[in-house]
Every structure is written in C-alpha cells, then in structure tokens.
Here is the input.
Amino acid sequence: MSGDSGAPTNFIRQIIDDDLASGKHARIHTRFPPEPNGYLHIGHAKSIVLNFGIAQDYPGSCNLRFDDTNPAKEEEEFVEAIKDDVRWLGYDWDALRFASDYFEQLYEYALELIRSGKAFVCDLDAEQVREYRGTLTEPGRPSPYRDRSIEENLDLFQRMRAGDFPDGSRTLRAKIDMASPNINMRDPALYRIRHGLIHHQTGAEWCIYPMYDYTHPISDALEGITHSLCTLEFEDHRPLYDWVLDNITIACHPRQIEFSRLNLEYTVMSKRRLTQLVQEKHVSGWNDPRMPTIAGLRRRGYTPEAIRSFCEAVGVTKSEGTVEMGVLENSIRGHLDAVAPRRMVVLDPLKVTISNYPDDTSEALPAGNHPKDESMGTREVVFTREVYIDRADFREEANKKYKRLVLGGEVRLRNAYVVRCDEAIKDADGEIVELRCTYDPDTLGHNPEGRKVRGVIHWVSATHGQRAEVRLYDRLFSTANPGRGGQDFLDDINADSLRVLSECVVEPALTSATAGERFQFEREGYFVVDAVDSRAGAPVFNRIVSLRDSWGKIAED
Ligand code: ATP
Ligand code: MG
Here is the structure.
C-alpha cells in the first residue's frame, strides 16, 4: 500500500486504499493511454508517474495502451517515441496494447447495442447533428433516424463496415437522452466512416472507426483495469463511460477518476501547438531542448529522477492551476547539485598572461570533482602561463562588493593560485584584449597572510584548454501564459531562447565527455553533452539550467 512505501499520498491513492481495504479489489490495474499523434510532454509525465507509480507501489499492473482510433493523425514514429520516453522515465508496462487490438470486439459490442435498441444508424451530416444537438440551455431534438428498426440498423451498420457509404454520410449513435443536461449524453456518435486511411496497426482493414468515448471504457474493461485515471475535462464524459459499460455484456467495470492537468508557465502543452512549433520550424524538432516534450527535456539534460520528483512535488488533485517554471528547474538543480561533477569552462574568454610564471612550465593540479562529495574523486587541471578567464569576471574599477578581478586587485583562480592584475591591454577601439597578471607561488591551497583576496573565479589553460560550442537555452516563451486572451501564441516566442557560443574554452577533462554526460560548469550552471550534434573529441554542450533562478532578475555573483 502507498503508505508503506513512503510514496506521496493523494486522493486517488486514498480511493485505492479504501478499495483494497473493503475487498473490492485484490490487485490494482492502471493504464497509461496516449494517442500516438505527437510526442509525450511533461504533462503526460504527470499521468505516467501517477499510473505507473501506483502499479509499482501497491503493487499492481500498468498497461501502456495506444489510443489509436484516429488514423488520420497517428503514426508509427509516435508509437516508438512514446515507448522510448516511458522507458526512459524509468517505467515498464505489464502489457502493451493498442485500442485497435479491440476493433473486432468493439464492432461486436456495437452490434449488441443495436440489437438491444440502444444504438442506431443516423444519416444526419455533421452540420445537422450540431443543429439537432441543442445547447447548454436548450434540449436537443431527436434525430429523424432515431426510430429505425433494429433490422434496418443492423443492415446499415454492417454495410457501413463493408464500405457501402461515403465518409460523413452516416454514423452509428448511442440512443440515450436528447434532453440530458449533459450534452455528451445526447445520442453521442459511436462510429464514423473514414475511407482511404492506412492505420499504422490495422492497415486498410477498416473504413469505420470507433469514437474515443466508446472505445475507452471497453478497452479499459477488456484489460481488467480497476482505476481509469484521466484528466478533468473527461469528468462530463464519465456518465457516458459508465453508460457504455452498463449496456453491454462485459464483466468488468473500471472506475474512472479525474485529476487536474499539469499546466506549466512559459510553455505550451497542447499537441496541436507543439505540432505547429515543429512543423513551422520555430524549433529544430520534437526533441529541441527548449520543447516541454520528454524528448526535448531529455536532450536538454533533464534526468528521469528530476522529472519524477517534479511530478511528485506537483501532486495530484482536482484543482486547476499553473505551475511555475521554477519548480521544474529546481527539480533538476536539486538532483544535479548532488550528482554532477564540477568542471571549469570559460564561456566568454579573456586571455590572461601570468608574467612571473615560466613559459616552459605547466603544473597538473588536483581539483575535486565535487565540493561536498569526496567519493567523486578528483581530476587534474593544468596551470600554465597563459590562461583564460571570463570577460565578465574583470573590471577596471569596482567597489568592494565586486568579488572578482579588478585592476590592481587580487583574486583566486579556483583550484590554483592567487593572481593580481597589473595591466589591462586594450586594442585601438579601447576594448580590453588581454590582462597581465602576476601570481603568488605561495598561495596554492591556502590564502595569503595579511591580505584580502576578493573572491574565487574559474579559468582554463589557454594552451591545454579546447574550444567548444556551448548552447545557452532559455525559456521558449517570454510570457508566463503564451497566447493569453486569444492572441497568437507564436507572438510570445522568446527571441533569445537560444544563444550559441562557439568560442568557449573547456578544461581538458571535458574533451572526452560523451553524449548525455552532465556537469556543473562552476559558477555558470548545469550542462549536458548534446546527444545529437556532438562528435568524438568535440562535445557540444547544452545549458540545462543556470545555478540560480535568475529569470527576470539580474544575476549577482
Ligand atoms: P492534447 O490534448 O494536447 O492532444 P491529450 O490529453 O489528448 O493531449 P493523450 O495522448 O490523449 O493527450 O494523453 C494521454 C494521457 O495523458 C491521458 O490520460 C491524458 O489525460 C494525460 N495527459 C495529457 N496531458 C496531460 C497534462 N497536461 N497533465 C496531466 N495529464 C495529461
Ligand atoms: Mg487525447
């Protein structure tokens, strides 16, 4: 039970606890039912962590079921990507199913509904169906085809399947209640005709396809699902879910429970919008590191642990809300702070010559991989006469609060010596091109006596460091709620969501880093080796997240 595992509890786990205690169920069975019409996003992760997490903790089973009843938008590519993402998040399914596995059974159940007078073939077109349906305040009117005989309905439905009628000419509808206050119960469509589609599982076998509201309860019941968890917009569909199962001969009746969707600031989550971003090339693909897709977050450098702990932190409730992006970012900071080795990388190099350090010498100095975890060991950083520091770490003049290098001031080069800046050399435009410093050979591993050093900055040897490309990713949208008030969400795209720095200098230990390896670049943030564009010996780094939440604020050192 959830209480024993230390897993977070929520109202759904409470219901499950009660169902186990009362003996209603001996074992729990959930499912995650994505439609393969796009890549999974962070919202899906919430549903995955919930469904697979319950199966893990109770224990029970969780199926991965593709809700593939709309072949016009679904593709094999998405099926494979979804399987891959679920596994990457750390879960495995007990059974892999497709709603299309049940097409024949669904058809048989439709015949049963027709035989018992609970479904009819309707000849109204889509426009007319809308007219007849009524509104929230007015009841609908019965279709003129509602009272067809069972024989005629059977004949017509069989001929629908046989391909005798064109698209849109007929539907199979449930016969429920045109006056119901719930519009979903006003004789909803169960089947529609779709010719000429090649379904990724069933090929050209079918020209009628069952509707989601009809397919879903039956698929759940056939799989013996005990708790069918879905998002709140399906609350009004629950009476139909129950109606379908109450009106066919089927042993199992899963309980549908709704929870609120995850909404996240500074991004969009609807598959329609994500598809548009990809198709119109506002991003480089579904796995662009700025996308809220699992594939994007993964390439960005997020870990499965961070995404799972984010989902758990957000929790499962019935109240709608929008989660701050900072919550997601903190989940990865928290994980990587503990596990990411530290490295030194200069993003905006400024050359420093240490005048009193011999030209023909270099020193391999030990540098700890993690300040709080000695078990992570050390690597060597090479100290030489010429090093790079970041341009942002030098000012000709600054007040005492400035903890970096100033002309005439001293600063520690991390893992190495204290240096003093003697001279800033400028080009004809007055831009600083090089610093001349002197080092104090007596300051390795301890501070000088009687003098105050301003702070510690990072550096890389100019002769041993290597140039590398670093990509600074930021939020894809510049407003918390893109497309707010009916505006075009594309107008809210953040023009600075990607800055490519091609002249960065990385310490020698990083040149052999391999795809997916994550590091903290000291004082800069967390970075991952890009899995797509890196080459052996030439890694490209993606910024996962800065060290602190500096969005909208000016980062002070
Ligand atoms: P969209 O409306 O963007 O196409 P969807 O809900 O139709 O998304 P599905 O593939 O049908 O996407 O979703 C699979 C499962 O994931 C469903 O159970 C759905 O409720 C859940 N899900 C989708 N988006 C979210 C979200 N933002 N938060 C929580 N669960 C979600
Ligand atoms: Mg859906």
